[in-house]
Model the fold of this input.
Amino acid sequence: MVMSVTVGGSTTGNQGFPSTMSANGALTSQSFRFAEFPVGISASGSQGASISISNNVGRQMFHLDRIEFLPVTSTFEEEYDLERAQEAVNALFTSTNQLGLKTDVTDYHIDQVSNLVECLSDEFCLDEKRELSEKVKHAKRLSDERNLLQDRNFRSINGQLGRGWRGSTDITIQGGDDVFKENYVTLPGTFDECYPTYLYQKIDESKLKSYTRYELRGYIEDSQDLEIYLIRYNAKHEIVNVPGTGSLWPLSIENSIGPCGEPNRCAPHLEWNPNLDCSCRDGEKCAHHSHHFSLDIDVGCTDLNEDLGVWVIFKIKTQDGHARLGNLEFLEEKPLLGEALARVKRAEKKWRDKREKLEWETNIVYKEAKESVDALFVNSQYDRLQADTNIAMIHAADKRVHRIREAYLPELSVIPGVNAGIFEELEGRIFTAYSLYDARNVIKNGDFNNGLLCWNLKGHVDVEEQNNHRSVLVVPEWEAEVSQEVRVCPGRGYILRVTAYKEGYGEGCVTIHEIEDNTDELKFSNCVEEEVYPNNTVTCNDYTATQEEYGGAYTSRNHGYGKSYESNSSVQADYASVYEEKADTDGRRDNHCESNRGYGDYTPLPAGYVTKELEYFPETDKVWVEIGETEGTFIVDSVELLLMEE
Done:
């Protein structure tokens, strides 16, 4: 039950009442208790006061005997404030000698008790106020000592490499307000779920005890679509929506400001902390739609060499999402016994079995990926590409590298996973291959990924995206032409390589020439003739079968790379409580955003595309590459002009 008193249109008191009898007990005179609280009324003017009483839905019966509204002296009010502050301070500790904090005393609650002490009258109880202030400071130090998080007061984000809080650049740290006494963080929404707003920290293995339950808790001023993760063997995940100031559950009834602009924490305020149900097991804690959130995780056997630790993650991946939170704590709760102990041992064993399976799979995938990457280069120095390495081979090798699982945590892809080292090793070589290829290919934007940038146009042409992430040039009319002027080295040899597809009658042509003469061209038609490869006679009747055999490419080193384009399907696993049993416990915790990085989703050329090439030796420092057709439609996947190795 809650009683509110409104004076002059402003609510000056709000008081909850604890239970005084059991739900099915007999009502006697002993069941009643007195409850009192002060109501401030201005000394000037005439004011009216109204009293309202409400009982939340689902609560037990409330019996009211009488209400008294009595004038009190200032001494009575100050004595009441002092008594209330003394009770609040003493309730922080496990004993009268203040050696330890109670487990359920939160860091946020200590700050609020500190505010209560600071609001005591210096004129009435200065000595008592100083004594209580020292006790509260001692409680705050004890709270800091048991908190395993680094940088508890949000002094910086990304300030110390490998330590403290890491987060996205759009997070802001703000000073205390009428809700928080200390610093708090604000997480805004994002326009792309693959680039979420995030804040995380790892609890090192050295700080954890074996077979112990730990608790993450804190205070949320308001939030929308705030995701909270605790990750060790699996991910414990909650989405928390907390209405804030100005909602149906206000944190404060007025925004009182002090004379210097500071928040007036001595102003009367309301606090809403409903006892909501949630989906946790008995004895476990979970976050719910309350300003005070709590989430726990069980730790099995600790291993300093493995350093699994616990990841604490806050994430927002929606445009309307936001959160303001502070007073975060990660602390030891209790040793595991009975069912909880058996459950964490089982979870640990399943995790180790999956880790062994992952290691076995990774060895195979890594070997295949490394062979594909190594085949791009001349030697193990990775400073020169093979002469016939083309862009499709680099894409194919990159595709195989992206088959390495657990390179990053699927819950937040900026956090390295168990296979981050080998993934980044191979991905670095892929990046080198792209750089060397770009340096060797003098055609700019030859894969049309940047539309028609760097190309000159005559007539109507289009760049279309086909088969997800492939851009192709479409020349639909015989009078259209696309060309590019290229600087070259006279006397050096070049390879003009084109991958294209011809629809309908006529021919598609890619011509290379200088100002005068020295012209050569590659022709593409719907009927493949035997002129390209003397020992590979192909007719129109068996053209389709040949394409399937060679994966849509005629260069010898492309053969065998078709398999690397195959899709890598995986089973999505729903986020659940840490030890929840599910039918797909061996399913991957994949992150679909991770496939958008690099060329993870680069698809193969469909049947019908042909790769042709010719050797060209320019006599001047400038050549022109022109693309056109005689009839039908000409579709070009890529154009390369590669400098031959000396």
User: Anything to note?
Assistant: The first helix runs from residue 74 to 90.
